[in-house]
Amino acid sequence: MHAPTRTTPPALDFLELDDLLSEEDRLLRDTVRRFVRDEIAPHIGTWYDRGHFPRELVAAIGEMGLLGMHLEGYGCAGTSAVQYGLACMELEAGDSGLRSFVSVQGSLAMFPIRAFGSEEQKQRWLPGMAAGDLIGCFGLTEHDSGSDPSSMTTTARRDGSDWVLNGTKMWITNGGLADVAVVWARDRESERIRGFVVPTDTPGFSTNEVKQKLSLRASVTSELVLEDVRLPADAVLPDVEGMRGPLSCLNEARYGILWGAAGAARACYESSLSYAGEREQFGQPIAGFQLTQQKLVEMMVATNKASLLAYHLGRMKDAGTLTPHHVSFGKLDNVRVALDIARLARGLHGANGITAEYPVMRHAANLESVYTYEGTNEIHTLILGQAITGIPAFR
Ligand code: TGC
Ligand code: FAD
């Protein structure tokens, strides 16, 4: 039996979670971390301020194999779920908008084509999307159908062998950038929800950018307008019908988010630890005050627990034992914890904390969106409530 040693654990990896990773995991993690440090961190404050999504970096992200990275074949990297999670963690330590881009592209646009698409749809779209040459978006939410997407009013009707889509989708990440939209609509004949692969240059398809966002400013969010969008018979995803289609995609994206949130929390903790060591008041570094140490310790403990949870759920996903309920557990807790840490970190940075020079207020503002999208805190609470009581309380 080994007795605990008295060596102080590293402040930035207190539980030494690095030891849980394989050599290959660490290599990938370090590559993405370097990319964020060199290509994102120096510019993100300015991009955020200007409301700019760095479209120019998409090809580099594709080159690193991060788009649809956990999917097999068709140019996708086919990594483990843990590796996909680690990439999301590093990207969101940079900015939630960057992780959002990768989540939507890989988990919400490429995943349904890979899982439910025809061979022709896979061949036509996936290799270009994996390379970053083509951008995808996912249209589920509508103005009046957010937490309850099954109430959607976007319709698909048959006209001969064609499909004709009408409706409006709202809050769509990558909408205005996308070459292809995966749109969910109600088949007017069967009343079932169907998924459609819609090239965005199809006549009748247009987008309007959501302006004046105070969160996720380095990300494009749009309304999609579909006015008599005529599609050939083979535009429908053939292998899924009903809400299972879009909800299966959400499982994939929510999984990435639970890792990403842990990354945003870590970035806030790291910035706080460094700031508290440098900033002096009352003749000493603020790290020397008990109240500051309490904040730092709360951040450190919460960040380590969020990462440990992410890693555990990642291993379950790789083992094939992860359920949507486990994903809700991770999305619910890691996002709310990350938001708490970001707010605490903002306070610790004093006035400097409200500027874009430090990442904390930007993360706090971003995490407000992350708290709402992909199932709000309340929706994941109800999913878990149903799981443990057997009683659905949504309606
Ligand atoms: P319900 O009646 O329970 O089930 C309908 C059908 O769906 C199946 N199902 C699932 N399948 C796969 N995964 C899941 N997680 C599933 N949950 C349910 C179910 O078995 C059933 O199948 P079948 O074959 O029997 O018909 O579903 P419901 O309509 O009552 O919905 C339940 C609820 C409220 C949990 C669901 O609607 C929900 O999760 N609402 C939240 C909406 C949401 O998360 N929207 C996200 C939009 S995308 C987004 O936000 C992107 S942000 C991206 C970024 O920038 O990172
Ligand atoms: P509502 O559903 O109107 O909820 C309002 C409040 O009521 C919330 O607090 C909610 O928890 C609560 N509430 C609702 N129902 C219940 C209930 N039964 N019990 C208790 N409380 C309840 N969607 C896409 O399809 N694709 C995207 O790419 C996409 N990207 C997004 C990007 C951003 C930046 C944002 C902010 C949103 C994005 N969304 C996207 C939409 C997102 O998924 C929805 O905003 C989310 O599902 C919540 O819907 P809502 O905003 O209409 O809120």
Walk me through the topology.
Elements (H helix, E strand, L loop, with lengths): L22 H18 L3 H7 L7 H6 L17 H14 L1 H21 L2 H13 L4 E4 L15 E5 L2 E12 L6 E8 L5 E7 L5 E5 L11 E11 L12 H35 L1 E2 L2 E2 L4 H30 L4 H25 L11 H13 L4 H13 L6
The protein binds 3-thiaglutaryl-CoA (TGC) and flavin-adenine dinucleotide.
Count of individual beta strands: 9
Question: How many separate domains?
Answer: 3
How helix-rich are the residues, as a percent range? 40-55%
Bound molecules: 3-thiaglutaryl-CoA, flavin-adenine dinucleotide
Could you say which overall geometry the principal axes of the C-alpha atoms support? globular
Strand content: 5-15%
CATH structural fold name of the largest domain: Butyryl-CoA Dehydrogenase, subunit A, domain 3
Quick one: biggest sheet?
7 strands, mixed
Per CATH, the architecture of the largest domain is Up-down Bundle
Question: Which key phrases capture this entry?
Answer:
binds flavin-adenine dinucleotide; Butyryl-CoA Dehydrogenase, subunit A, domain 3; 9 strands; globular; two-stranded antiparallel ribbon; binds 3-thiaglutaryl-CoA; seven-stranded mixed β-sheet; alpha+beta; Butyryl-Coa Dehydrogenase, subunit A, domain 1; 395 residues; Butyryl-CoA Dehydrogenase, subunit A, domain 2
